[in-house]
Amino acid sequence: MHPPSSPAHQWRVPAALPAAKLAGAAVLVLLGLLLSDGDRVRLVLAVTAGVALVGWALRDLLAPVRLAVDPEGVTVIHGFAGRRRLPWPAVEAITVDRRTRLGLSAETLEIDAGESLHLFGRYDLDAPPAEVAEALRAARPSG
Predict the structure, then answer these.
(1) Nearby residues of 111 by Cβ (< 8 Å), 6 or more positions away
(2) Global pTM?
(3) Any idea what the Cα angle at residue 69 is, between residues 138 and 77, rounded to 5°?
(4) Distance from the Cα of residue 48 to its chain's centroid
(5) Domain extents for the chain?
(6) 64-99 pLDDT, tens per residue?
(7) Which 3 state secondary structure label does DSSP give 85?
(8) Is 2 helix (H, G, I), strand (E, B) or coil?
(9) Domain spanning 65-139 has what CATH number?
(10) Which of 109, 110, 79, 76 is nearest to 92 (CA)?
């Protein structure tokens, strides 16, 4: 048995994103403390939102690589911080969904693996989804 090949390319969350989430959590808790005015519900809501942001930032710190590709297939994030290996034969389609709403446009990379669909946005990949889709298609062996 030979060792697994190293990823040809990886896409990860931008380095500043977890820091921004942690800063946002701190601001929420601080605002909750300053504006609660003795109302425990306001404080609990602010702290709960702050804790949720910290959890989200922890995911970015524990599993920064969201997508990797090599000649054998792709590795995607699965669950909170796990990984799932998709060999090329399991990947049915690689597409980019473009939507416009309220004047804003968004792209989402979709990797269809039959029974599972894996979605990645711009901030999951730190690259435009269309570019990542092209890189994935180029890495896929023909045949």
Answers:
(1) 67, 74, 76, 86, 91, 93, 94, 117, 118, 120, 136
(2) 0.81
(3) 135
(4) 22
(5) 16-62, 65-139
(6) 999 999 999 999 999 988 999 999 999 999 999 999
(7) strand
(8) coil
(9) 2.30.29
(10) 110
